[in-house]
Amino acid sequence: MPYRHQLPIAVPLSHDIEHRPGRKLPYKARVRWTDPSTKQRRSVAQMHPDQESAQEWIDSLLASASRGINPATATQTLAEYGTTHMTLALRGLEAKTTDPYLAGWRLRVVPALGHLPVTMVTNGAVDRTAYAWIADGEGRSTVKNTLAVLVRVMEQAVHDGLITANPARITGWQRQYQLAEDELDDPRALALPDWDALQELAAALVARSADQYPGWGDVVTFAACTAARIGEVSGVRVKDIDTTNWIWTLRRQTTPSPGGLADKNTKGKVARRVPLIEEVRPMVAQRLLTLRDKPDARLFTGPRGGRITTAVLRDATHWDDAVQSLGYEHLRRHDLRHTGLTWMADAGVPLHVLRLIAGHGSPHTTQRYLHPDLQSVVHAGRTLSNHLTTTPGLPPPAPGMSATLRRL
């Protein structure tokens, strides 16, 4: 894409603050200057809640202009800045590298962070966004390429003097893929042990949330008992629940998208049916009663009616602190799904049925939840013994074998 050189201007700026009573942001800060190349009068403006913040904004532009930075550039959004400076940011790279970088910028960076002014992109914002990409199922190389292009654009902003440090240089996100690899080997190890542990977790999350919102506990309980992803729980509508057979037809999930959160098809692109066990039916029934005559209403929302994501649940409940206090330091929101699938497997749900409930494309993925524990092994031995001793035509146990085993 063409790069348009931004001439350093270092010209005097005029500025003012206008008070507009009765508005949510009543102070309008404005900066004006004459572009030395075109001789045109230009300006930028921004609304603020008070006069102090308006003056701080003006001071920041004055400081930028004193270093030769165009005030219009200093107030650009990340998307605008990237469009203008991308060629310069990617200089020296081969086409085979720039192609995935640009795809990451277009498909992930701009939808998630592009609306923010460059000066407001923080290390925390990038960190949370990267973890959201991982939670949404993006591969390691995809996230790596996406962060790489963001690092280069923000490094250009450092060179331009817009920011003093590169906020896109985050660490630790690779660990999430190591956890994902671990769960592929033994997802059962990531599950909560029993119902009491789930209820303890739900209560702890509610207690740590603002105003102790009970809906967070309902979301966690529902997710574990249905082996669903948090985004899928957020996508439940009243019309998806069959109270005659107590079946949830899972049709959609809530995920980040351009312009904010949006509902889209399930990860496997196919609707699936999930049983609602007796333990969650009273809670579901109460919610359906509250939302009667609203078939398109969401069954689960945040305290202000907003859509739920794994990041929203984490931040609202102080998840990391809560799980650490309970001794589950590595428990993530996605592990509620592992919990449900593990419990169903231990309850004897057949493999083909478990696969349909989980929405797995490969039976090999589902089989990993069937790793038997010691009790299951003992039960298997007893089942085989009963089969051998009761089925006609099979040889009886060897004489004296029972006594020999007792001596052992």
TrEMBL record:
Which residues fall in a coiled-coil region? none
The entry assigns this protein to a family as follows:
Belongs to the 'phage' integrase family.
* Name listed for the protein in its UniProt record: Tyrosine-type recombinase/integrase
> What's the superkingdom here?
Bacteria
Entries under Pfam families matching the protein = Phage_integrase (PF00589)
Against InterPro entries, the record matches this protein to: DNA_brk_join_enz, Integrase-like_cat_sf, Integrase_catalytic, Integrase_recombinase_N, Tyrosine_recombinase_XerCD
Region feature (Disordered): 389-408
Q: Which UniProt keywords apply?
A: DNA recombination, DNA-binding
Segments forming domain Tyr recombinase:
191-382
Q: What is the lineage of its organism?
A: Bacteria, Bacillati, Actinomycetota, Actinomycetes, Kitasatosporales
What transmembrane ranges does the database entry give? none
Q: Which SUPFAM superfamilies match?
A: DNA breaking-rejoining enzymes (SSF56349)
> Which PROSITE patterns did the record assign?
TYR_RECOMBINASE (PS51898)
Q: Which CDD domains match?
A: INT_Rci_Hp1_C
